[in-house]
Design brief:
10 helices, mainly alpha
């Protein structure tokens, strides 16, 4: 019951937005922009012919592969930079120089290096999501309360034991936040990459529907599906934030 009350305001606002959308389209008698019902019918059309699942599967595969590679690289690198002052001093300027570059700016280079297959969007997802995770993980190590480290040292713990038993558990909440940010960026980037360099995925669905007969019902359907999947992915990451072994440092 409590969870139902929490989502009711969001559902009400969403219903109002859909109603306003429908009313504006009907009032303007637009011959191009679809009504919500036309979008629903377009979505059902994609479901019936099976293309929707193919596009969703292609996009999720690329995001999963690129994001996994980013996690494998970013978390150890961020821990190392946070723990070792020399590594931070050496690598942080490079990270901060590359981080502001828009992932879209890497598209021509990705196509040049990897062609127009799956490797290009996977690389773009990696390059876009690795930096937020590195920065967040490094910041997490730097913000660990000194009393935790001093307490472990007082018990005679070695530096490696201190890192494994104190630093890594303490930084887990920040790592999860970085992963959540990185995954959101990855989902944005794969859609943009598919619009330019591929012939499958939700981004391709949107641009192809626009070019093939102005099917704006499918364009909007693709946008809605992207939003729903993004919400689902973010919800999964939020579940990780609530795990007891992740939130131990916030027990008070």
């Amino acid at each position: 019951m409590a969870q139902t009350r929490q989502i009711l305001p969001s559902v009400a606002v969403l219903a109002l937005l859909v109603a306003a959308w429908w009313a504006v389209v009907e009032a303007t008698q637009s011959a191009i922009f679809p009504t919500p019902w036309q979008v629903v019918r377009g979505t059902l059309e994609l479901i019936r012919d099976g293309t929707l699942w193919e596009h969703i599967g292609a996009s999720l595969f690329r995001v999963g592969a690129g994001f996994f590679l980013a996690v494998v690289v970013a978390i150890p690198l961020g821990l190392w930079m946070g723990w070792m002052k020399g590594a931070f001093t050496t690598l942080n300027p490079i990270i901060q120089m590359l981080r502001p570059i828009s992932p879209i700016a890497w598209i021509p280079i990705a196509i040049l290096w990897f062609g127009v297959g799956n490797a290009s969007p996977i690389y773009l997802i990696f390059i876009s999501s690795v930096f937020p995770m590195v920065v967040q993980t490094t910041a997490g190590v730097h913000t660990i309360e000194r009393r935790y480290l001093r307490a472990a040292q007082n018990f005679g713990g070695s530096r490696s034991t201190l890192f494994r038993r104190v630093v890594i558990p303490a930084v887990l909440p920040q790592i999860i936040v970085g992963m959540r940010i990185g995954l959101g960026v990855a989902w944005l980037v794969v859609v943009a990459a598919e619009m330019i360099a591929l012939r499958s995925g939700l981004g391709y669905l949107i641009i192809d529907s626009r070019n093939a007969g102005n099917r704006y019902d499918l364009v909007i359907a693709g946008m809605v599906i992207i939003g729903l999947i993004g919400l689902l992915l973010d919800s999964v990451m939020r579940l990780l934030e609530g795990l007891k072994w992740v939130r131990w440092r916030y027990a008070h």
